[in-house]
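Hi,

Apologies if this is the wrong queue. I'm a grad student, and the batch job for DUF2116 family Zn-ribbon domain-containing protein from Geojedonia litorea produced an output file that my downstream script rejects. I'm not sure whether the problem is my script or the file. Here is the sequence I used:
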Amino acid sequence: MQKKCKECGEKIVGRTDKKFCSDACRNSYNNSINKDSKNLIRNTNNRLRKNYRILEELNPEQKTKVSKAKLIEKGFDFNYFTSIYTTKAGTIYYFIYDQGYLPIEGDYFALVKRES
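Support response: The file is valid. Your script probably expects a header line. Output copied below for reference.
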């Protein structure tokens, strides 16, 4: 019995456990299987990644203060974060993975990095 490529249907030559006729077909098949059925996940991850990079860039010393205007200028989106941490005193930090920010007086934010 001839085995056929899962992607293009061509005859497979070689090992008995092969599923694809070429690397191109294997990659194409896996890309189509793994792609998100909706763009929601990809877009959310892209926004989180962008927010993370902005915080990382503006907070090289692991703790700093920055204006809201500066964050917005860089393209920061306050609607996307991965977790909220509330201290015993009731202070609320917003985190994107290990990079966090805390709204403080005026239009300023304290940027922090969570220790591992």
